[in-house]
Structures are given as C-alpha cells and as structure tokens.
User: Which sequence fits this backbone?
C-alpha cells in the first residue's frame, strides 16, 4: 500500500478529554493523506515498581502507573493499542512484575511490551517473558511496520561470569553512574533477525521502532547509550521514514540522524537530570537535542506530563505539556535541517539545568 503523509497538525487538544492535566503519558498519531487512515497509540514507560515487603510497594512509583493507565482509558479517540516501554519493575522480582502486570491489565485494549534492563538482569528475562511473551518481534498495523527490540543486552562475560549471584548482577546494572555496569547493545543475533525482518518491508513503508535504550550514543556514564547503535541505524537507513521511540532516560530528548527521528518517553516514576548538570560528565547530549527546562529528581512529578508525538512526515514532532511548565514543541525544521525547539531553541531563553546533585 502506498502511504502518503499530509503535513497538517495533529494536536487538537479539545478532542482529548484530559489534555489539560500533567500526565506521564505519550500520545502518538500517525497522520496520512486520507484522514480516515489516521490512527493513534499511547506510550507509557519506566514505572520502576519496587517492592518494600509483602504487598507493600513504593507508593509514588506505582501511583504514577495507576494514573497513566486510568488516563489512557479515558482518551478520546481510543488509541488503537498501547506500548509499555520497559522497566516495569525496579529489581526484576516476581512480586514487582506481578504487581506491574496487574496494573497494566486494567488497560482497555491491546498492549505491546518492551524489555527494560530492570526487568531483565535478575533472571535474564525469564519471568518477564512468561508474563508478556517475546523479547523482540515485529507487527503490522494499518500500513505501518512496527519493530520491538530488546536493546539492553550486554556481553556474555559480564552477564554470565562476573557476578556471584543474580541479585548482585541486577543491583550492579540497576545503579546509575556505576563503573561496574556495562553498556547496552542489541547484539548480533537480534541484528540478523532485524535485517531479515526488514527485508520483507518496502522501502516507502513507514517504520516505527520501539527500544528501551536510545539506539544512539548520548552519555555512556549513565548508560544512555547503545554500543551497536550505528549498526542498527544502518539497517534502518534505506527506509524513507523511520521513527525510534525509547524510554530509559526519564527525560525529554529529541534528535534526527539522517532519515531517523528519535524521541524519548518520560517516565511515570521519577525524572533524571541532564548529564551536563553532573560535574563528572564526560559527554553531553547530541548537539541537536534541546533539553527540557527542568529535570529535578528531588521533585517527583517534575518531568512528567503529556507528550503528543505527530509522525505526519516521518520526522517526529513532539509537543510536551509538563507539570508546572509551558507547553512546548520540538519538531524538525526543513530549513534548518535539524530539530528545533519552537520556544527554547535560543540558549538565552532556556532555564539552566539543575546543579545540586
């Protein structure tokens, strides 16, 4: 099927019943030449459900997922499906995954799942897979080819040989700025699968990829990084329109690399600061990415809010409605040849990053 995109704006907040609230939720519309072909999906990510003991869980974090699920069910029009972007659990335990799965079961409609490192490194995804199925796969929906990747794998030596217990392996991978951690990757086996999967897809078919880590190299110290990102990007390069959605970073990021538009999902749990606010940071975000105005990990709801993603041209346009912040849009500018922040592109207009951590 030959799909053509129009360039009309997706955002019509009057049609979304809860658009005025600050919610940890992404709403995505793919807009086609025929409005009747348009469809939406919702994206929720990074809930980090953490068990205290028994049936007690860290309240702030499961409350974020409960709210996101409830508001997703109120969306009008109803999304065709929901993506959960990974890190459902914090330490990968059965109680955490069961509790998260129970909360997600309240969603009305089809849910697709992405593997996060917090879901994986306790038992290498065994229990997660029993609950949710394959760790990587693809599906078709209304003329769009969707791909879900497990991007949080790492070297066999680190995974199987280094740690005396599975609990320590999970704890090491869960730590931020931990020199004992290991960079993520998609891996040879999965890249070979992806090559075969994409070989069946026409080059003018819109392709949307979901991963947990960014499929680009942002900041290695915090594992905002995928070691084989360039190899994956090369497999996607022949296609006219590609969009990659990812979680993991708990902050707004947007970037364009060739034909590939990258955009992150905010977390339902807590925000992370930007790497340049960290005194020991050796690498900053991609230079074309404009950071959001705030990311304060000491304020639990900072960096949570609506994200409206319009993929009408194959280059994602992201409109964010953040808690206690102005609505902002980051979109590809054809004249500039890279993403531009409609309000805060000028450095003089940006709020400086937090520096107290």
Assistant:
């Amino acid at each position: 099927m030959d799909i053509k995109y129009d360039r009309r704006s997706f955002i019509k907040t009057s049609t979304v019943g809860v658009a005025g609230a600050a919610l940890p939720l992404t709403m995505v519309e793919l807009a086609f030449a025929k409005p009747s072909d348009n469809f939406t999906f919702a994206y929720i990510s990074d809930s980090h459900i953490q068990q205290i003991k028994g049936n007690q869980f860290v309240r702030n974090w499961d409350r974020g997922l409960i709210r996101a699920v409830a508001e997703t069910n109120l969306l009008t029009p109803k999304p065709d499906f929901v993506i959960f972007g990974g890190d459902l659990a914090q330490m990968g335990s059965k109680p955490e995954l069961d509790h998260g799965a129970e909360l997600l079961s309240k969603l009305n409609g089809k849910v697709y799942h992405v593997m996060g490192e917090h879901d994986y490194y306790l038992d290498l995804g065994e229990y997660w897979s029993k609950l949710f199925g394959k760790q990587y796969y693809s599906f078709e929906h209304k003329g769009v080819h969707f791909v879900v990747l497990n991007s949080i794998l790492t070297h066999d030596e680190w995974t199987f040989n280094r740690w005396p217990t599975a609990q320590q392996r999970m704890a090491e991978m869960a730590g931020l700025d931990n020199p004992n951690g290991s960079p993520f990757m998609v891996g040879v086996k999965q890249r070979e699968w992806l090559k075969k999967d994409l070989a069946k897809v026409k080059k003018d078919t819109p392709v949307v990829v979901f991963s947990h880590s960014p499929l680009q190299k942002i900041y290695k110290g915090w594992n905002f990084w995928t070691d084989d990102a360039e190899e994956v990007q090369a497999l996607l390069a022949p296609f006219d329109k590609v969009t990659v959605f990812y979680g993991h970073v708990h902050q707004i990021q947007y970037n364009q690399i060739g034909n590939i538009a990258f955009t992150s999902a905010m977390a339902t749990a807590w925000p992370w600061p930007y790497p340049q606010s960290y005194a020991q940071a050796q690498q900053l975000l991609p230079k074309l990415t404009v950071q959001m105005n705030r990311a304060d990990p000491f304020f639990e709801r900072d960096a949570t809010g609506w994200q409206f993603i319009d993929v009408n041209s194959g280059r994602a346009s992201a409109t964010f409605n953040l808690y206690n912040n102005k609505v902002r849009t980051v979109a590809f500018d054809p004249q500039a040849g890279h993403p531009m922040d409609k309000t805060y592109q000028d450095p003089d207009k940006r709020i400086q990053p937090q520096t107290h951590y």
